[in-house]
Amino acid sequence: MSTVNPLPRHDLVHPDGRAFHFYGELQGTLNGQPSAVDVGDVHLRYDMLTDTWVAVSPARNTRPGREIAACPLCPGGAELPFAYDAAVFDNRFPALSPEARGRCEMVVYTSDHEGSLSTLSPAQVARVVAVWRDRCAALWAQGHDYVMAFENHGVEVGATLSHPHGQIYALPFLPPATVAKVAAIDQHRRERAGCLGCELVAADAGAGRDVVVNDSFTVAVPFAARWPFEVHVRARRHGCGLLGDLTDGEAVDLARVIRSVTARYDGLFGRELPYMLCVQEAPAGSPDWHLHVELLPPHRDEHRLKIRASVETALGLFLNDTLPEESAQRLAAVRVDDGSWSGVFVPRIDPIISRACGAG
Question: Which of 139, 140, 334, 349 is 20 to 30 A from 131 (CA-CA)?
Answer without folding.
Answer: 334
